[in-house]
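REQUEST FORM: STRUCTURE PREDICTION
Request ID: SP-0412
Submitted by: Lab K.M.
Chain count: 1
Length (residues): 430
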Amino acid sequence: MAKSLNWRSFLRSTPLLILLGLGGVTTAITVGMPGLTLPTASGGSISDSPKEVIDQVWQIVYRDYLDSSGDYDEKSWRQLRSKLLKKSFAGNAESYEAIRGMLASLNDPYTRFLDPKQFKEMRIDTSGELMGVGIQLSLDTKTKELVVVSPIEGTPASRAGVLSKDVIVSIDGNSTKGMSTEDAVKLIRGPEGSDVILGLRRGDQVLDVPLTRARIEINAVTYRLNKTKDQQKIGYIRLKQFNANAAKEMRQAAKSLEEQGAEGYVLDLRGNPGGLLEASIDIARQWLNEGIIVSTRTREGIRDVRRATGSAITDKPLVVLIDQGSASASEILSGSLQDNSRAELVGQKTFGKGLVQAVRGLSDGSGLTVTIAKYLTPKGTDIHKNGIEPDVTSVMTADQLKNFTIEKLGSSQDSQYIDAQALLLTKIRS
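STATUS: Completed
RESULT:
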C-alpha cells in the first residue's frame, strides 16, 4: 500500500512536459498537472516489478490521451491493462516490449515509449544539442513508412542533401519495413565519427546516402541585414527550431536588426520541424501586439487560449517563408501571424502536424510522450494533416535545387527569398 501511495505522489510531482515537433528534436516546458484518479490495479501487487512501469504508462494514457486516429476504445484499453498485469515478465526488456505493443494499438506515431537511454537523449536534445546525423523522423500513419520531416541545417544530413519528405527505406542495408521511429533512431544514432548509410526513396529513385555521425550544437536563430539594389534594408531572420534558447535569440536578432535600421523583415521558417510550445508563443508575442496566438483542445474541449500581450518588438512589415518541412510550432507561429494579418506567407504548404504531446518521466528512468491535445489557429482552423497554405506560392525548380546549398538561403540565389523580398518591398513602399 505504501508503494502505491508513493507512485501516486510521484505522478503528481513529476513535471508534465508539453512539446511540439517531430522526432528527437523537440524541447518542452513544465506545467502543472493534477493527481490521477484511476481504476485499481488488477493481478495483485505490481510494486518493485516490471509491471509497475507498464501500469504507469497505461494510467497516463487513460487519463490524458487525445485520440487522433479513432483507434482508442476505453473498454478495450481497460481489458488490455488487465491482460498485461496478469502476465509474468522476466525483466525490463520484456515489459518495455509489452509497453510498445500496448501503445502501438493506438496507431499514433507521436505517442511512444522511451527507455532510460532514449529518455536521457531526449533531455539532451531539449538543451539544443543533438547526437546523430540531424534529421527528424515521422511515421506515416497510412503507409507506415518512415518519413524525413526535415534535415537540420548545418548537420551531416543537410550537407549530404537529405530532403523533407524523403522516405527512409533502409538503414545500413536493413529494411525499415515495419520499423518504429524508436527502432530507427537506435540504428541511426551512434558514436561520434561513426558512419551510417540511409537508403532514401525520393520519387521513383532510391538513393544510398552515407553519413558520418556527429555531436551537433544548434543555434536556433541566425540573422543578417540584407540590402536591395535600391539600398533598402531588409532584416533576414532564419529560425531553425523552437528550442530552449529560441525566444531569447529571436529577441536579440530583432533588436539588433532594428538598431541597424531594418525597414522590414523576412522570417524564414523553412525546414523548421517545431519544438517548444512556449517558445512559439513567446516568439509570436515579439511580432504581435494583439490577438489570439493559438488555442489548444483536449478531449474535454477547449482548454487554453494564448494571446498577444502588447509586447511586440516592432510593427514593421513582415513576410514569412514556409515549406513542407515547416511543422508543428512553425505552423503555430505562421498561422498566428497569417490569421491576425500581421504577415503574409510565401512558399509551399506546411507539413500539417497539429498535435501536442506531453512527456512524462517514469519511475525507472524511462519516459513517455503522449498526445494530449490538438492546437487550432486563431481563426479556429485545425491544420493537422492539412497544413497551412501560403498567401503566395513559391517553389524552387529542379534546376535551382540541383546546386542549392544552405549557405545560399536568404540570398539573391534563393528564389523563394527573392519572392518574399519582392512582396515585402511592396509593403514597405505602400
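NOTES: The chain has three domains: 2-118, 131-216, 219-354+374-429.
Reviewed by: T.R.
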